[in-house]
Each structure stands twice: as structure tokens, then as C-alpha cells.
Amino acid sequence: MTKFLIAGNWKMNLGPTDAAALAGELSKKWPSGSFSNDVVVSPTAISVPAVVDALKGTDIAVSVQNVHTEDSGAFTGEISTPMVKDAGCKYVIIGHSERREYFGETDELVASKAKKVIADGLRAIVCVGEKLEERKDGSQQKVVKKQLDGVLSAIDSSDSKNFVIAYEPVWAIGTGETASPEQAQEMHNYIRSVVADRWDETASKNVRILYGGSMKPANAEELLSQDDVDGGLIGGASLKADSFSELIEIAESLSK
Ligand code: PEP
Fold first, then answer.
1. pLDDT the model gives residue 127
2. Which residues contact 136 (CB under 8 A, 6 or more apart)?
3. What's the pLDDT at 1?
4. pLDDT at 2
5. Strand spans (E) along the chain
6. Is 168 a known active-site residue?
7. Could you confirm whether 188 is annotated as catalytic?
8. 63: helix, strand or coil
9. Separation of 146 CA from ligand 1 center, angstroms?
10. What is the best residue among 233, 238, 240 to mutate for testing ligand 1's pocket, by most ligand atoms within 8 Å of CB?
11. Which of 98, 105, 130, 168 is catalytic?
12. Which domains are delineated in the chain?
């Protein structure tokens, strides 16, 4: 049985003080043993220690939003997997569309980051998704397959449990627009078939495929009820303890 993964992406919001306050609210609401799925929050890197501290005594894991492929060295402004582990994180978001769009991350770079993250014992949440014009011209599956190809070559099927894919149609991120449950299911099912073709059926079932793009309490139940939707990567609605908690509750009510 697959557990849902509910992951909050706080993006470049909430410095240490505000991030600790939000994590503190979540910590009060969700003490250890209070949910059965997996829950992750991903603060901006400078807020990670404060959030890790505030979440002690809970089962909420912490993620970062990006990582470099080297362990250390002259890479001003970057953070590495040993640092991320030392800080107490368990997950890394890789290849978010904002990183692809504003920081020039290519499929090749995303693949090498995913490889490094998994080799170093962290869980990778790799984001894929088409732009609006690609959805409009019907090339969304081709685009997503290309984004996945390099990653699936870079990591091994035996790592499938540490590999999470987030399908995030770019046109639905932060726009208030959401993929319909049917559109999400169709793409998630396609993604699983790509993983099964490249790896095998069992590994494709181990990989969790999250939906991301304006997921919120009002639409989460329908999206999470789809067969191949194993959770959500949530931006806006993860920035408030109430709405994020509602999403955790909805996932709890829908056993996979
Ligand atoms: C995201 O940041 O990955 C995201 C899906 O954002 P939002 O939920 O705000 O659309």
C-alpha cells in the first residue's frame, strides 16, 4: 500500500522567525503518531535549522528546494547534500519549474542532481510539467517524457522508493488554475507507464507521483482520489497552518 505524500513548498517565503512560527503551529496540531501518511515541508534554506527544531516531536520531515551536485568547494551561494543531511533534512525538491525557468536548470542538470541526492541517501522530489503552449498544442506527454528520460537513466530502479515525481503543469502553478482530476490522472498514469517501460512494473508502483498546481482544500479530495495521484506538492496553500492541515486531513481520510 502506498502512503500519500503531502509536501509543502514554501518557496522564497518565511525567514527563520516566520518559518519557525508556522512550523510551531503545525507541530502543535500534528504531534508524533497523529497521521499515517508522509508529510514534508520545504522552507527556504536559511530557515531549515529553525524549522527542523520547531518540528521536533512530530513526524513532519523537512526538505530543501534545491541542492548542488558537489559536496563542497568554490560554488558561492550553493548548498550540498552533506550539509542538507547534517541540517536534518530528508528530502530535496529538484527541477521545480521556477528553477528551470529562472535559473536555467536543464534536464541534464536535474538528472545529475537527482542522482546525487539519491546516492547520498536523501529522497528526491523531481518536478516535471508542461507549459501552457505545450498543453495547447497537445505535446504535454512528449515534454514530460523528455524531462523524465534523463532522470530515469541517472538513477536505478532499486531506488524507486526514494524517488518521487511531482507532475506540475506550469500553467497551474500559483495561477489558481488547476488541472482537472481527469487531466491529472491521465498524465500520472502516463508517467507511471513511462517508469514501467524504463524500469519495471513493481518499481513504477513504488514511485510516488504527486500533483502540484494550485492544490488546495477545495480541490484536494478530487485530485487525491485519482488512482495514480499519490499526494501533492503544494505552494500557496502550504503557507498557512490551517490550509496545510486541511490537506493532511483530506489525505488521511482517503486511505490509498
Ligand atoms: C509549487 O510551488 O510547486 C506549487 C504547486 O505552487 P501552488 O500550489 O501555489 O500552485
1. 98
2. none
3. 61
4. 80
5. 5-9, 38-42, 60-64, 91-94, 123-128, 163-167, 208-212, 231-234
6. yes
7. no
8. strand
9. 22
10. 233
11. 168
12. 5-254 (3.20.20.70)
Residue with cell 517565503: 13
* Selection from 221, 236, 238, 133 nearest residue 184 by Cα: 221
C-alpha cell at 214: 494550485
Annotated active-site residue in 96, 98, 105, 188: 96
Q: In a structure prediction context, what are the per-residue pLDDT tens digits for the chain, which is 256 residues long?
A: 689 999 999 999 999 999 999 999 999 999 999 999 999 999 999 999 999 999 999 999 999 999 999 999 999 999 999 999 999 999 999 999 999 999 999 999 999 999 999 999 999 999 999 999 999 999 999 999 999 999 999 999 999 999 999 999 999 988 888 899 999 999 999 999 999 999 999 999 999 999 999 999 999 999 999 999 999 999 999 999 999 999 999 999 997 6
* Residue 216 Rama label (left phi>0; alpha psi -120 to 50; beta): beta
| Cα angle: 109, vertex 111, 117; to 5 degrees | 100
Distance 235 CA to ligand 1 centre (A): 3
Q: Ligand 1: distance of its center to the CA of 71 in Å?
A: 29
Ligand 1 atom having least distance to the Cα of 11:
2
The residue length of the chain stands at: 256
Distance from C-alpha of 237 to C-alpha of 254, rounded to nearest angstrom: 19
The number of the ligand 1 atom at minimal distance from the alpha carbon of 93 is 3
